[in-house]
Amino acid sequence: MDAIKPIIILVYFLFALLAPLQEPDGIHWRADQRLAWKDFKGDPTNTKAAAVTSSGISYSFSSMVRGDEVKVDYEVGAYFYPDKSWYRPLVCDSVTLGHEQLHFDISELYGRKMNKRMGETQFTKNVKAEIKKIYSEITSELNDFQNRYDDETDFSRNRDQQLLWNQKIGKALGTE
Q: Could you tell me the pTM of the whole model?
């Protein structure tokens, strides 16, 4: 009978770049909802940046193990955190807002990558560690990609590169 007894594990692990825990009022990414400056509710934390977007991916999962069979249900999403995001109105324009939106869009793109990896993975009884490893790898790639985006667009100041990135990410998300 013990071999039939299901073991259920429920784990919630949340992540956002620049926000270690999911804020209760985080905005879930949607293709039909774009950020507005009113969504940026935080106070500026440095003097160099014109704006900062706090966004990232989070996941939750539950698993059931019966013998050697592992069944995993999961959800992955991208979130924007208003209280950790801010802007300086005197130096920001619509291009800056578009740049910040793309940071959020990139988080969604990597949320989709994690979702795909989770769907392709044959989990074992070490499901918690396996998901944590996938998450760690994806968020590391996300962080590198976000930094590359800022470098190549010079934080939206290189308008030609900004337009190229808008097209690239729009195409990848299927929103273009």
A: 0.85
